Each structure stands twice: as C-alpha cells, then as structure tokens.
Amino acid sequence: MKKFELIAPCHFGLEAVLKKEIIELGYDVSVVEDGRVTFLGDEEAVCRANIFLRTAERILIKVGSFHAETFEELFVGTKSLPWEEYIPKDGKFWVAKAASVKSKLFSPSDIQSIMKKAMVERMKQSYDLSWFAEDGESFPVRVFLMKDEVTVGLDTTGESLHKRGYRKLTAKAPIAENLAAALIMLTPWRGDRILVDPFCGSGTFPIEAAMMAASMAPGMNRSFTAESWGHIIGKKNWYDTVDEAQEMVCLDVDTDIQGYDIDEKMVEIARANAKLAGVEKLIHFQRRAAEQLSHPKKYGFIITNPPYGERIEEKKNLPALYSMLGERYRALDSWSMYLITAYDQAERDIGRKADKNRKIYNGMMKTYFYQYMGPKPPRKSNETCRKG
Questions:
Q1: Is residue 88 domain-shared with residue 234, that is, in the same domain?
Q2: Closest of 152, 149, 126, 123 to residue 63, by C-alpha
Q3: In what order do the strands lie in the sheet with 60-67?
Q4: Is 378 part of a structural domain of the chain?
Q5: What is the domain extent for residue 139?
Q6: Secondary structure (3-state) at 68
Q7: The pTM is what?
Q8: Are residues 267 and 130 part of one domain?
Q9: Looking at the structure, do residues 242 and 144 belong to the same domain, yes or no?
Q10: Do 56 and 9 meet the contact criterion of CB atoms below 8 Å apart?
Q11: What are the pLDDT digits (tens) for 120-163?
Q12: Are the C-beta atoms of 89 and 132 separated by less than 8 Å?
C-alpha cells in the first residue's frame, strides 16, 4: 500500500484533542502545529481518518513543502512537486484555498493563480500536452504559508468534515459539529452519564454526544472527493471502512441526553436533525426555558453554547442570563458545567471562577470554554453493547 504524510486541519486550540483521536485510531503523529496535525498513514488511513475523526476539518495528502519568499520561488517550488503522481491528464485541478501567516507572500488570489500556472507547466511536461480539458475527477489543492515555508496538500475530503450530513436546518448561530464534538471530548462525559444542553438550538451538542454513545462514526453517511481517485485509493478501502463503521454502531445503549430550547421551532428542527443522524431515540428534546433547568440525579453534565449577544440590544440581557445559569447550576447536585461563549464576563455573572478556561477560536471569533468541574461519580462496571 502507498504511504502518505496526511495533514488534518482543526480549530485553533483543539490540536491536542485531534492528536489524541489520531493516535487512538492507530496512526503515528509526526507534527502538531497551530490549527493542524500531521500524521503518517496508507490508503486505508485516508478513508478511516475521513470517516472516523470527529474533530478534524478535512484530510489532506501532503504533496510537498518548500521555502518561498518571492512569487518566482513559489512558482519553481510548486513546479518541482510530482503532480503527475496524483492528478491524471483529464483531472480538474485548482488551488481551492491559500492561507498565509507571517510570510512575505500573503495575497491568496496571487498565490492561487501562480501555483495553478506552475502545476500546468509541470503537467505539460509530464503528459506532453499543451492544453488540459480538465473534464475528469476533481483534485482540489490547499496551501499553507507559515513564515515563508509552503506546505501543499491535496484535499481528499471535499465539503468540510463538520458537515456530517444530518444538519439540514440550523439555528441562527450554530456551533460546528466538529467543534461541538471536540468540546465534549474535552470533558470527562461518557455515554452512560447525564448530559443536558439548555440552549440546544438545532441540537448539535446532544446529537454529537449521542453519536459518541452509539459508537457511530461521524462520516459514515456522507461522501468524499477522494472516493473517485481509484488510482490513488482503491475503492475497496472505502467499502471496508464503511463496513467497519457500520459494525461498530450500537443504538441499544442506555442514555440520558437532553436538549432544551425556549423556541418550539428549534426543538422541532433538533428532533429532525437527530432523526437524520439516526440517534433520535437516544435524545429527549423538549421546549423548555433554561430557567427551568433541573434534574433529580447526581453527577450530570451541562454542556452548552449559550447566547453571547451578537446584536447590541441582546448584550444588555447577558448579565441576567448568565446569573440565572449560575443559579440553576448551583441547584444541581454534584454536577459539572462546560460552556463555550464569546462573552468575556461570563464568570463574573455566573458567580464563580471556572476551574479551567480554554481559549478556542471559532472561525475568527475568540471564544472561551469555561469548565466547572463537579466531583467524580463512583466507578461503574463497563457495560458492553447489547446487540441483537
């Protein structure tokens, strides 16, 4: 089998979570950088990473890297890469995205244009052609420039991995599925523990938690760009990985996962999304105000993305809302609370400093992941899945 260096981009601040996932999937991590993790794998690894990783944004096959401070160096470096090993003569190829940090070359459109020209020149020589129809399969390329070091990758994923395929309808400011999964994985929550999201919106936190509880791979019900790259990754690898994912699913698990929202329309949307994800029977959604948050049992988890006042008129309501959340949390017996918000006065209004506070970039927005840790529950015996 072919061996690749694979690059998995992720949200800034969540590299350690993704690294742990990749290692648990059985692959060796070679480099961890801001916003991405590089690891080693074969054809099967490309399929398994796309289908099983919950926190990555996409999987790139690294084509090469080089130093470039001028557009001439960028052209020469790009042309020196073995494009013909990846892209067939009828392939459709383009630089889908260029990102530059602390580099002399910083114009994405110029970087994309020059790299495309260099790729064409290389392919002309390799295939002895003067013109490319580009009417075959798609081969999108992504490039990162960091301190004048250029890293070039072929995008095997296509539409970002956060698009699991279940979220057809969304809330006003939905949290990305891979970010929600990563935040849950930063907590000690497990599938046999209580989880409540009192601001559930379109249901992302409860659905991602239910998929984890059911051992459901996030990418098992979607397609990927590289599925059509038969000369790089054999079709059998995709079929075998989907079979592996399907065999792992166990919906016969006991869960206590709840999502509330004050908006009945959002509750209906959350239920529809959970049904599309195949986990509707593992989650209880209901129209309920956050002020009514309560639970009779101990050792539960609040994991949520509360409002943080995107509009000026909403900001004045935030102190009262976060104060109420703090009161409801204190009324619960031995619970933990984890919330992501861009509101920087959350701790003050909740009435207690968080045990941990992690800075995470949600796109370009700086957010805080406040972690209030309750006591550990008594150990339970491990239950196995009751299949059949």
A1: no
A2: 152
A3: 28-33, 36-42, 3-9, 60-67, 149-155, 138-146, 92-101
A4: no
A5: 3-155
A6: coil
A7: 0.95
A8: no
A9: no
A10: yes
A11: 999 999 999 999 999 999 999 999 999 999 999 999 999 999 99
A12: yes
